[in-house]
Amino acid sequence: MSSGSSELRESYELCAAETRQFLAGMWTVAEGTLPAAIRPHMHAITGFTTWTDRIADEGAPADRVRRIARWRSETLEDLRSGRSTHPLRRAFVDTALRWDLDRAVIEELLATFEADCASPPVFETFEDQRHYLRGVTGMWARMWIPLLDPRGPEAFRSASLLGEVGQLVDIFEDLPRDLAAGRCYLPREDLRRLGLEIADLRRGEPREALDELVDIQLTRWRDLLEQALPVTAMVGPGYEAFPAALILGAQTHFDEVTLLRSRVLAEGVEPLSLTGRARRRPARPAAGPLPGHVAVIMDGNRRWAARRGMSVAQGHRAGWRAAMRLVNSALRLGIRHLSLYMFSTENWDRSSREVQDLFDALAEAIDQGVERLHELGVRVRWCGRRDRIDPSLASRLALLENMTSNNAELTLTLCIDYGGRDEMVTAARSLAARAAAGTIRPGDIGPEDLAGSLYAPGLPDVDLLIRTAAEQRLSNFLPWQLAYAELVFDPTLWPDFDLARLRQAILDYGGRERRFGGGLPGPARPGEPARTG
């Protein structure tokens, strides 16, 4: 943005303040990924949209109708004349002219808000709901996608779908307040099919039918999100992180609604962050025994990307998003230890381009997720060789370890440049050196001594191992800690692994009989941490 007049600068600042005040959650993270030169124009588009939304929502109904009609008329006149005297609209008009924003898109956005203001929309069918979603946040996304160097017309469609998903997030966040005010933004045909009235949604009964109602919405939400995913590959270099952050936010909200089901009608969904800080939500463990330590072999990134016509690098970026999503799911389900197989010693055999893409994606994930992990109370440990990773990435990992070292909600162990056989050899050499130095007698070496010489001393035994993408092998992963682990092989490709899949694996674990080498079966129980020497 050029300096321009002081009034124009003040207008952009007002748009930024409007955006940050009324858009919480992942938006704070997403906007931080944008280049500084783009950010003011994103604020102008988003500030204009939220201001318009507030005009349509606030005040007496008759006043709202008059104000939104005047706002629409003045906005269109400003766009025709190429200038505005309104303190907020000035920046929006400037951005619309600089980026040649589609006037038809702006007009549809305004028309949708005006119609919503005249009378709260009632959606008979899902298609009616989609029409509203497209008209509001779909058009909002179509306004900002030109800022991200879009690659072809499909980028506009995918961005619009991502905008629709964002509006679904908003609908679920506001459900309790809307129902209390007599508004229901869910399709009426869904209610009729299940024999439900809006009063039932407010009462929270009958629970089974309400759970099914929410499940129907989740299915549609998942389908829209699936169609929106390619947008990360349809923007220019340097811009991918913005839609990726919005996708991660939508996925995390999706998982939250999956966890709550019909309880969302009374509780809604809290924004992911308030005033820029992550909000810790209380755990809601699955019924039955809970594994203390869950380890995951994350497989399927490349196949996931190939099925969507995306690059391998895009598949790995989606895999890192899935890892962040899993951390949130583990916290919500009450898991205390989570270990992820992120890069094995054998992965160096892949092409140098793919290895670099993997590490680039990991560096981006750390940069974008470090504060959130810390605020959520996650302690991060690095398990693996530390002598071969690029120094810049190694420094990031060391900083992440140090920053989160006193956290206690969840211990997240990142297995990077890790190989189980290498680890055992390293531990054996360490014990041999101690024996040669006379600090330990060979005959006194016990399991606790070996455990204390591993890459991550004190790492508890794994209770549940999950491997995705239908592969059924251990791939040199945590051989010491996996001695008595229960194994679950899930067909889901890793980037699609969500809270529902984790919860199902935990339920499978709870149904196993764990003997630990004994003769009598017993209920699943968390493993005890290895003693350190």
From TrEMBL:
Gene assigned in the entry: uppS
CDD domains, per database record: Cis_IPPS
Listed name of the protein: Isoprenyl transferase
Source species of the chain: Streptomyces calidiresistens
Subunit and partners: Homodimer.
A cellular-component GO term for this protein: plasma membrane
Role played: Catalyzes the condensation of isopentenyl diphosphate (IPP) with allylic pyrophosphates generating different type of terpenoids.
Primary enzyme class: transferase
Annotated EC: 2.5.1.-
Cofactor note: Binds 2 magnesium ions per subunit.
